[in-house]
Amino acid sequence: MIxxxxxxxxxxxxxxxxxxxxxxxxxxxxxxELQKSEVLEIxxxxxxxxxxxxxxxxxxxxxxxxxxxxxSIDSVKQEIQMIVNLKLGETDSAWTALILAQNCISIxxxxxxxxxxxxxxxxxxxxxxxxxxxxxxxxxxxxGIIKKTKCSICELEYEDCDHMKGKxxxxxxxxxxxxxxxxxxxxxxxxxxxxxxxQLRITYKxxxxxxxxxK
Length: 215
What we know:
The protein is α+β, with helices and mostly antiparallel strands. 48% of the residues lie in helices and 18% in strands. The mean pLDDT is 94.
């Protein structure tokens, strides 16, 4: 990869330092105030990334690298936020943070500028969190016939364009926008397209309770 812009080079180097420190903070036994402070520091870094992405004259490679860094560091931020939320007893928010972390690192891995296998250990770590910190739950899945879609990059019908959903193009991620769909079913599944559409409550000892806390 060739990076010519000095600001991109500097922020890339800064990423390594921030990511290393954040991983040291993303441990449950670490002080919660340190973790809250780390989330704010990462937010500040992400704002710098966003500002730099608006700079004119960057190459497509440089813009895609900045977006990769943004998704990568956001994943670590969400991991720390999950830990903070668990400590505060905010289990719903903790789950949301974990799924956001998983989604961010999945997107980053798909667009890794060097070797996507480097992120496998981190991806596995987030999957382990899901298994050991939360109960097994079911998810809602929507099925239907998609009639009209659009590519977020070129705005053509997605099936007619050359872009691939989830891939980066000049600092933007391609999204297959669904504009018209005929709903056929809604079912409960174990492996959904989105883990945000989850089961919320169960019956425990004859009472309707929150699936995470049993309260």
